[in-house]
Amino acid sequence: xxxxxxxxxxxxxxxxxxxxxxxxxxxxxxxxxxxxxxxxxxxxxxxxxxxxxxxxxxxxxxxxxxxxxxxxxxxxxxxxxxxxxxxxxxxxxxxxxxxxxxxxxxxxxxxxxxxxxxxxxxxxxxxxxxxxxxxxxxxxxxxxxxxxxxxxxxxxxxxxxxxxxxxxxxxxxxxxxxxxxxxxxxxxxxxxxxxxxxxxxxxxxxxxxxxxxxxxxxxxxxxxxxxxxxxxxxxxxxxxxxxxxxxxxxxxxxxxxxxxxxxxxxxxxxxxxxxxxxxxxxxxxxxxxxxxxxxxxxxxxxxxxxxxxxxxxxxxxxxxxxxxxxxxxxxxxxxxxxxxxxxxxxxxxxxxxxxxxxxxxxxxxxxxxxxxxxxxxxxxxxxxxxxxxxxxxxxxxxxxxxxxxxxxxxxxxxxxxxxxxxxxxxxxxxxxxxxxxxxxxxxxxxxxxxxxxxxxxxxxxxxxxxxxxxxxxxxxxxxxxxxxxxxxxxxxxxxxxxxxxxxxxxxxxxxxxxxxxxxxxxxxxxxxxxxxxxxxxxxxxxxxxxxxxxxxxxxxxxxxxxxxxxxxxxxxxxxxxxxxxxxxxxxxxxxxxxxxxxxxxxxxxxxxxxxxxxxxxxxxxxxxxxxxxxxxxxxxxxxxxxxxxxxxxxxxxxxxxxxxxxxxxxxxxxxxxxxxxx
Length: 678
Description:
Elements (H helix, E strand, L loop, with lengths): L14 E4 L2 E9 L2 E6 L4 E5 H6 L4 E2 L11 H6 L2 H19 L22 H12 L3 H14 L21 H13 L8 H16 L9 H11 L9 H8 L18 E13 L5 E11 L5 E8 L4 H11 L22 H7 L16 E4 L8 H9 L3 E4 L9 H13 L27 H16 L4 E6 L2 E6 L1 H12 L8 H6 L3 E4 L6 E3 L2 E3 L21 E6 L2 E9 L2 E6 L12 H13 L7 H17 L3 H15 L35 H8 L1
Parallel strand pairs: 6-9, 9-10
Antiparallel strand pairs: 1-2, 1-5, 2-3, 3-4, 6-7, 7-8, 11-12, 13-16, 14-15, 16-17, 17-18
């Protein structure tokens, strides 16, 4: 086999190792290499691919020497670097007979003359000259051939691992284990960590077996090993840092609207007034388009988000955002730079739409929450032709854009509202719950308006014009640009499609109407279908009824002639729309006051009172008195009897009207107690 004289040059005729086999270079043409294998098969491979393939090497040549790490050499102490240079002089003299930078015409010393002395003899002469062993000289020559000057540096003086100095490896391992255990613990001091490390080392290796450094050195060692962990800082930051993926972070990119939409839910940092009159934080569920950073839809719900909320979020994404009374005319889509006329030709509803695009997603990214992996949400996405991609467990970077959007909403919107709680308890104000002024529907209206004017029209730092990269553009402008480039035209949902996404109940249409959850719904349009078979044999002739759990005032019945809207028969008794959890609260209050919670009219009156009290806010003093009374009763010693607690009253009663729990206390008589025991 022919071999190259220079291992850094590839020539025709050379034999190489490639793809677990030997090949001969037949010809070189530009960036292509023609190869012939041992069995005669020929192939053409790009030179860049060939040389980057695993296992590639030129047969019969020495491997290419590694370049010296000049940056590391510059950080060494002068004495260490000069000692390495001195060794370089000796090694080069052994290999060539002359020292580096020798003047032209210089003759080698007799003991190092290659013409009369072999390489082994020259190495033995150098070992004798320096007073070291032959093995030392040969080892220095080998490292110099592989690493250059860096191979001659005294590795004991190098602090690549640096960091730990001369500390015992067993102690370093114990410190790292203790630091790892601090990830999910409450933040402590360095002295506590030192104590735990010492106990850990003694339990593993025995007392006195591992040398321990001084206190100052211990502190320095912990400081170096805990860098970037926030071990002694914020516990939230520490957990977030530990939850970051080990691999490199690649930003999510999309080239057209709807290519990827990220969905997530989180508690909002604002206290709201619930229908019951109490205050709590609301859950915010949003969908963010990666390409345009458009918040396609945002839904606020009290306490806990349900699977139906995620389905309704999809429905809101696929219909135009309507203009609301009181909104400025500058927020109309017709006044924006979006392709309004083009969309108006497709859907007449765009004439009254706000300046927020309708984006139909090709795929959505969700986490493992029960809300999003429920059958309701998955079936809704399947029906709309949307692919669902689940993020990896405990990997927030898989949907980093929606996570960052939550932070932006808190900064740009939530902190300007009354009842703002701050991101954590340490930043919360005094009695924030008493400042809550907005109900969930009112806050939803504020959020919808802010999304149009405060988000869609605001320049976003992640959106850049490719021709003016220093200029940030708004989500609406980015949408207009990408629509022109990708030819994107959304086909929005019809009203019937919106109803399809609502939860379903199968019921009989009786003479009195339809019963769902102790509520009766009826409409004159149901007349032809009363006591009739629906034609669906799998459901035993029951009718398909859709309902919105956040507005139980109406239900929607599918018939052979289309949809029929049936209102609640007691709707005139109620002053406001109500949700399912409000109805359940009214039933509980009715039962506590001795009423029949299955009697529809009685529960309707209680529901009306509940909604009326919610308009005036919670009676906090009454709630506090009730709570203290129950706590006192539960803390009585065993064997002490107290009067039974009266039924819980609605919040409309004042604190003075609440029944009082009385407990009789007797005088302790030591003599009588002694005689009783005797």
